[in-house]
Amino acid sequence: MIEDPHRFDGVAVLGVDEHVWQWLVARPKDWSKRIEVVAMGGFTGFKTAAAEELPAAVAIMDPFHVIGLAGDALGNCRRRVQHDIFGRRGVKGDPLYQARRTLLTGASLLTEKQQARMAALFDDDQHAEVQATWSVYQNMITAYRENDRGLGKYFLQHTIDRISSGVPTGLVEIRKLARTLKKRAADVLGYFDRPRTSNGPPRSSTADSNTSAAPSSASATSPTTSPGACSKPEASDPTYTLVRQDPDVSGL
Protein backbone atom coordinates (compact mmCIF):
# COMPACT_ATOMS: atom_id res chain seq x y z
CA MET A 1 0.00 0.00 0.00
CA ILE A 2 2.68 2.52 1.02
CA GLU A 3 4.62 1.85 -2.20
CA ASP A 4 1.55 2.37 -4.40
CA PRO A 5 2.22 5.56 -6.42
CA HIS A 6 -1.53 6.09 -6.85
CA ARG A 7 -2.48 5.82 -3.19
CA PHE A 8 -3.04 9.58 -2.91
CA ASP A 9 -5.04 9.92 -6.12
CA GLY A 10 -8.32 11.69 -5.45
CA VAL A 11 -7.11 13.26 -2.21
CA ALA A 12 -8.66 16.68 -1.61
CA VAL A 13 -8.04 17.13 2.13
CA LEU A 14 -4.50 17.13 3.50
CA GLY A 15 -3.47 16.95 7.15
CA VAL A 16 -0.11 18.56 7.80
CA ASP A 17 2.56 18.29 10.47
CA GLU A 18 6.19 19.33 10.76
CA HIS A 19 7.32 16.60 8.37
CA VAL A 20 4.97 17.15 5.46
CA TRP A 21 6.51 20.08 3.62
CA GLN A 22 9.51 18.38 2.06
CA TRP A 23 7.25 15.53 1.00
CA LEU A 24 4.72 17.99 -0.41
CA VAL A 25 7.32 19.82 -2.50
CA ALA A 26 8.17 16.50 -4.14
CA ARG A 27 4.57 15.91 -5.18
CA PRO A 28 3.58 16.74 -8.79
CA LYS A 29 2.27 20.29 -9.12
CA ASP A 30 -0.93 19.15 -10.78
CA TRP A 31 -1.61 16.93 -7.74
CA SER A 32 -0.95 19.77 -5.29
CA LYS A 33 -3.37 22.01 -7.15
CA ARG A 34 -6.17 19.53 -6.42
CA ILE A 35 -5.83 19.94 -2.65
CA GLU A 36 -8.87 21.87 -1.41
CA VAL A 37 -8.36 21.81 2.37
CA VAL A 38 -5.33 21.77 4.66
CA ALA A 39 -6.02 20.67 8.24
CA MET A 40 -3.51 21.85 10.82
CA GLY A 41 -2.80 22.76 14.42
CA GLY A 42 -2.24 26.16 15.94
CA PHE A 43 1.41 26.65 14.97
CA THR A 44 1.45 29.67 12.67
CA GLY A 45 4.37 28.23 10.71
CA PHE A 46 2.03 25.59 9.29
CA LYS A 47 -0.35 28.25 8.05
CA THR A 48 2.46 30.25 6.47
CA ALA A 49 3.88 27.20 4.73
CA ALA A 50 0.43 26.10 3.55
CA ALA A 51 -0.18 29.52 2.01
CA GLU A 52 3.12 29.25 0.13
CA GLU A 53 2.85 25.65 -1.07
CA LEU A 54 -0.94 25.34 -1.43
CA PRO A 55 -2.23 28.87 -2.02
CA ALA A 56 -5.59 27.70 -3.36
CA ALA A 57 -6.36 25.43 -0.40
CA VAL A 58 -8.51 26.47 2.56
CA ALA A 59 -6.72 26.32 5.93
CA ILE A 60 -8.71 24.62 8.68
CA MET A 61 -7.71 24.43 12.33
CA ASP A 62 -9.36 21.18 13.32
CA PRO A 63 -11.27 20.36 16.53
CA PHE A 64 -8.55 18.11 17.93
CA HIS A 65 -6.10 21.00 18.06
CA VAL A 66 -8.62 23.67 19.02
CA ILE A 67 -9.94 21.67 21.95
CA GLY A 68 -6.34 20.82 22.78
CA LEU A 69 -5.65 24.54 23.24
CA ALA A 70 -8.69 24.88 25.50
CA GLY A 71 -7.63 21.81 27.48
CA ASP A 72 -4.15 23.25 27.91
CA ALA A 73 -5.66 26.51 29.16
CA LEU A 74 -7.76 24.62 31.70
CA GLY A 75 -4.82 22.54 32.87
CA ASN A 76 -2.57 25.58 33.20
CA CYS A 77 -5.26 27.44 35.13
CA ARG A 78 -5.75 24.51 37.50
CA ARG A 79 -2.02 24.29 38.20
CA ARG A 80 -1.70 28.06 38.69
CA VAL A 81 -4.60 28.22 41.14
CA GLN A 82 -3.28 25.15 42.92
CA HIS A 83 0.06 26.90 43.43
CA ASP A 84 -1.60 30.15 44.48
CA ILE A 85 -3.52 28.33 47.20
CA PHE A 86 -0.90 25.92 48.52
CA GLY A 87 2.38 27.36 47.24
CA ARG A 88 3.29 24.05 45.66
CA ARG A 89 2.32 21.54 43.03
CA GLY A 90 -0.71 19.37 43.56
CA VAL A 91 -0.44 16.15 45.55
CA LYS A 92 -2.81 13.36 46.47
CA GLY A 93 -5.59 14.75 48.61
CA ASP A 94 -5.65 18.23 47.04
CA PRO A 95 -9.12 18.84 45.52
CA LEU A 96 -7.83 20.41 42.30
CA TYR A 97 -5.24 17.69 41.81
CA GLN A 98 -7.82 14.97 42.41
CA ALA A 99 -10.14 16.57 39.86
CA ARG A 100 -7.52 16.98 37.13
CA ARG A 101 -8.96 14.24 34.92
CA THR A 102 -12.58 14.91 35.76
CA LEU A 103 -12.19 18.55 34.71
CA LEU A 104 -11.31 17.38 31.20
CA THR A 105 -14.27 15.01 30.96
CA GLY A 106 -17.34 16.00 28.97
CA ALA A 107 -20.00 17.18 31.40
CA SER A 108 -22.64 14.72 30.22
CA LEU A 109 -20.23 11.82 30.70
CA LEU A 110 -19.75 12.45 34.42
CA THR A 111 -21.00 9.88 36.89
CA GLU A 112 -23.10 11.00 39.84
CA LYS A 113 -20.03 10.72 42.06
CA GLN A 114 -18.00 12.86 39.67
CA GLN A 115 -20.79 15.42 39.42
CA ALA A 116 -20.87 15.71 43.20
CA ARG A 117 -17.10 16.11 43.27
CA MET A 118 -17.27 18.88 40.66
CA ALA A 119 -20.07 20.64 42.53
CA ALA A 120 -18.04 20.59 45.73
CA LEU A 121 -14.96 21.82 43.86
CA PHE A 122 -16.78 24.80 42.39
CA ASP A 123 -18.51 25.65 45.67
CA ASP A 124 -15.11 26.86 46.85
CA ASP A 125 -14.64 30.48 45.77
CA GLN A 126 -10.91 29.89 45.54
CA HIS A 127 -11.62 27.75 42.48
CA ALA A 128 -13.71 30.35 40.64
CA GLU A 129 -11.06 30.94 37.97
CA VAL A 130 -10.86 27.22 37.26
CA GLN A 131 -14.64 27.06 36.95
CA ALA A 132 -14.66 29.96 34.46
CA THR A 133 -11.98 28.29 32.33
CA TRP A 134 -13.77 24.95 32.58
CA SER A 135 -16.96 26.59 31.29
CA VAL A 136 -15.12 27.89 28.22
CA TYR A 137 -13.66 24.43 27.60
CA GLN A 138 -17.09 22.77 27.86
CA ASN A 139 -18.75 25.38 25.63
CA MET A 140 -16.20 24.75 22.90
CA ILE A 141 -16.86 21.02 23.07
CA THR A 142 -20.59 21.74 22.86
CA ALA A 143 -20.10 23.73 19.68
CA TYR A 144 -18.32 20.87 17.95
CA ARG A 145 -20.87 18.32 19.17
CA GLU A 146 -23.86 20.28 17.88
CA ASN A 147 -25.55 18.34 15.06
CA ASP A 148 -26.64 21.57 13.38
CA ARG A 149 -23.39 22.87 11.90
CA GLY A 150 -24.70 26.42 11.59
CA LEU A 151 -25.70 26.42 15.24
CA GLY A 152 -22.39 24.91 16.28
CA LYS A 153 -20.53 27.59 14.37
CA TYR A 154 -22.66 30.25 16.04
CA PHE A 155 -21.96 28.76 19.49
CA LEU A 156 -18.21 28.78 18.92
CA GLN A 157 -18.22 32.27 17.42
CA HIS A 158 -20.23 33.46 20.43
CA THR A 159 -17.73 31.87 22.80
CA ILE A 160 -14.79 33.46 21.01
CA ASP A 161 -16.51 36.85 21.07
CA ARG A 162 -17.46 36.41 24.73
CA ILE A 163 -13.90 35.76 25.90
CA SER A 164 -12.22 38.26 23.59
CA SER A 165 -13.25 41.29 25.62
CA GLY A 166 -14.11 42.14 29.20
CA VAL A 167 -12.25 39.19 30.71
CA PRO A 168 -10.50 40.11 33.99
CA THR A 169 -6.72 40.27 33.78
CA GLY A 170 -6.44 37.52 36.38
CA LEU A 171 -7.86 34.99 33.95
CA VAL A 172 -4.60 34.83 32.04
CA GLU A 173 -5.27 31.43 30.48
CA ILE A 174 -8.63 32.48 29.02
CA ARG A 175 -7.17 35.72 27.70
CA LYS A 176 -4.30 33.88 26.02
CA LEU A 177 -6.71 31.34 24.51
CA ALA A 178 -8.96 34.15 23.29
CA ARG A 179 -6.07 35.88 21.51
CA THR A 180 -5.23 32.69 19.63
CA LEU A 181 -8.83 31.89 18.73
CA LYS A 182 -9.55 35.44 17.60
CA LYS A 183 -6.41 35.54 15.45
CA ARG A 184 -7.24 32.18 13.86
CA ALA A 185 -11.04 32.58 13.91
CA ALA A 186 -11.47 32.07 10.16
CA ASP A 187 -9.49 28.81 10.30
CA VAL A 188 -11.26 27.62 13.45
CA LEU A 189 -14.78 28.42 12.27
CA GLY A 190 -14.04 27.16 8.78
CA TYR A 191 -14.28 23.63 10.15
CA PHE A 192 -18.06 23.91 10.28
CA ASP A 193 -18.18 24.52 6.54
CA ARG A 194 -16.02 21.43 5.97
CA PRO A 195 -16.87 19.10 8.86
CA ARG A 196 -14.93 15.94 9.70
CA THR A 197 -11.69 17.55 8.53
CA SER A 198 -8.96 16.60 10.98
CA ASN A 199 -5.22 16.15 11.39
CA GLY A 200 -5.37 14.94 14.97
CA PRO A 201 -4.87 11.40 16.31
CA PRO A 202 -7.65 9.69 18.24
CA ARG A 203 -7.51 9.93 22.03
CA SER A 204 -8.59 7.12 24.33
CA SER A 205 -8.91 9.25 27.45
CA THR A 206 -11.53 10.88 29.62
CA ALA A 207 -10.77 14.17 27.91
CA ASP A 208 -13.41 13.25 25.30
CA SER A 209 -11.34 14.10 22.26
CA ASN A 210 -13.04 16.07 19.54
CA THR A 211 -10.97 14.49 16.82
CA SER A 212 -12.97 13.72 13.72
CA ALA A 213 -11.78 12.79 10.27
CA ALA A 214 -12.59 13.38 6.67
CA PRO A 215 -13.65 10.28 4.73
CA SER A 216 -10.62 8.16 3.90
CA SER A 217 -11.24 8.52 0.17
CA ALA A 218 -10.89 12.26 0.38
CA SER A 219 -8.12 12.88 2.88
CA ALA A 220 -4.54 12.01 3.64
CA THR A 221 -1.62 12.79 5.90
CA SER A 222 2.06 12.81 5.04
CA PRO A 223 3.89 9.47 4.95
CA THR A 224 5.52 10.37 8.27
CA THR A 225 2.21 10.86 10.04
CA SER A 226 0.59 8.01 11.93
CA PRO A 227 -2.36 6.35 10.13
CA GLY A 228 -4.35 7.18 13.25
CA ALA A 229 -4.36 10.81 12.14
CA CYS A 230 -7.16 10.04 9.71
CA SER A 231 -9.38 7.97 11.99
CA LYS A 232 -12.44 8.69 14.04
CA PRO A 233 -12.56 7.54 17.67
CA GLU A 234 -15.69 6.14 19.25
CA ALA A 235 -15.83 9.25 21.41
CA SER A 236 -16.66 11.26 18.28
CA ASP A 237 -20.25 10.03 18.27
CA PRO A 238 -22.11 12.84 16.44
CA THR A 239 -25.18 12.31 18.59
CA TYR A 240 -23.29 13.35 21.71
CA THR A 241 -24.08 16.84 23.00
CA LEU A 242 -23.42 18.86 26.12
CA VAL A 243 -25.46 21.49 27.86
CA ARG A 244 -24.07 24.87 26.85
CA GLN A 245 -23.64 27.73 29.28
CA ASP A 246 -21.90 31.09 29.07
CA PRO A 247 -18.75 31.36 31.16
CA ASP A 248 -19.34 33.70 34.06
CA VAL A 249 -16.22 35.87 34.11
CA SER A 250 -17.74 39.24 34.90
CA GLY A 251 -17.43 39.00 38.65
CA LEU A 252 -13.91 37.62 38.88
Short account of what is shown:
This protein is mainly alpha-helical and 252 residues long. The chain contains ten helices and four strands.
Order of helices and strands: EHHEHEHHHHHHHE
Strand proportion: 5-15%
Percentage of residues in helical conformation: 40-55%
* Most strands sheet: 4 strands, parallel
List the total number of helices. Answer: 10
The secondary structure category is: mainly alpha
Separation of the first and last Cα atoms: 56 Å
Q: Report the mean per-residue pLDDT as an integer.
A: 77
- Could you tell me the number of beta strands? 4
Low confidence ranges: 202-246
Widest beta sheet: strand line-up: 3-2-1-4
Radius of gyration: 19 Å
Label the overall shape.
elongated
Provide a descriptive summary of the structure in words:
Helix 4 (63-86) packs antiparallel against helix 7 (128-145), helix 4 (63-86) runs antiparallel to helix 9 and helix 7 (128-145) packs antiparallel against helix 8. Mean pLDDT is 77; it is low at 202-246. The termini are far apart. Strand 2, helix 3 and strand 3 (58-61) form a beta-alpha-beta unit. Helices cover 44% and strands 6% of the residues. It has helices at residues 20-25, 29-32, 44-53, 63-86, 95-98, 112-123, 128-145, 149-163, 172-183, 185-189, and strands spanning 13-15, 37-40, 58-61, 219-221. A four-stranded parallel sheet has the order 3-2-1-4. By secondary structure, it is mostly helical.
